[in-house]
Records
---
Amino acid sequence: MNEVLTIDGLAGGYTDVDIIHGIDLSVNPQEIVTIAGTNGAGKSTFLKALLGLLPRTKGSVKLYGQDISHLGTEARIEQGLAYVPQVTNVFRTLSVYENLLVADKRVTRSQIDEMLQVFPALKTRLSQQAGTLSGGERQQLAFARALIRSPKLIILDEPTAALAPKLIQSIFDVIVQLKQLNVAVLMVEQRARQALDISDRAYILDQGKVVLAGAAHELLNNPEMVELYLGTQTHT
């Protein structure tokens, strides 16, 4: 199987001191992969280094075998990455329709219609200002903005952050649907139990290093994983 994303020995950070240290990671086609870990483990730093938003000091990033490590963020996105940042991920003063239009200068009405099929809740909101949408609707709009470019891999940073509890499962349900669009998913998520429930594989970071990796269901049943990173709550 050709890997969509291959990370080899990635290291980097905000200053001369590396925050992430030699991370190896892969994502296969139509796979959901979760990155979990405690606060300060380096999860968001890793995503930013992957996207070229932070400098890397070592390692490589490959998309379908092509090394994109030397490319800037926009060029990486042009190659097939999509990114949904945490919380601030839509233009709140623009309408839903305008948000979809500005996602890509080449976007067509048929592409917008395709996104409305995937996210039907947005159909009746096209003229509505994005800032007036519910949290769940805004997140769906953020997904649609990312997917309209037909990416090979969508990267999600805390997709359920700041959402009301009743909306969280609906967002996880949407993420599961992304597999049907022939797109792979890599996400950082603090709600590790729920994220692993819908994931194929997962990587656990601690102090900028991968400390556990494997099939998601196996990690959910790993006593070390539960004790250190999931707490003692009953798995649901």
---
Amino acid sequence: MRPLHVRSSRTVNSDDLVLRRANDSDAIEIADLWLRSFTAALPTVRRAHDDDAVRNWFSLVVVRQHETWVAVAEGAVVGLLVLDGGDLDQLYLDPSWRGRGLGDRLMDLAKRQRPNGLALWTFQVNGAAQRFYERHGFIAVERTDGLRNEEHEPDVHYIWLPQE
């Protein structure tokens, strides 16, 4: 894994960042970013799969079968967005890139790619994610006890529909 140099600026400079479709060669770096981000954002949530299984899933399923985007800065993947039909399936940032506007850029991309609306799930313990999605116009439509997800963690179903 490459070390990531972080600029002191709190916002994303568009000259320093590229959003592009992921390819097979990105899969392991994307998986490693997911692992870092999940661990930092959700320290109390039990992961359903070990690191190698996550890397295999990104390599064999996510990048190949879903619309996967990466945010690249200084040659390193610092953000990922996965769209699966009308679902925003994954949106994760390198922990050092949180609070710098990158999540907003990825959300704008997701809405451009799915202008008719999006749905997503997030864990109830992830208050920061819930605030982020609500700030972007998502509305909670269902809360569950978590028995239907692999982590068995209570979650929230959100939808976003464009304003007419």
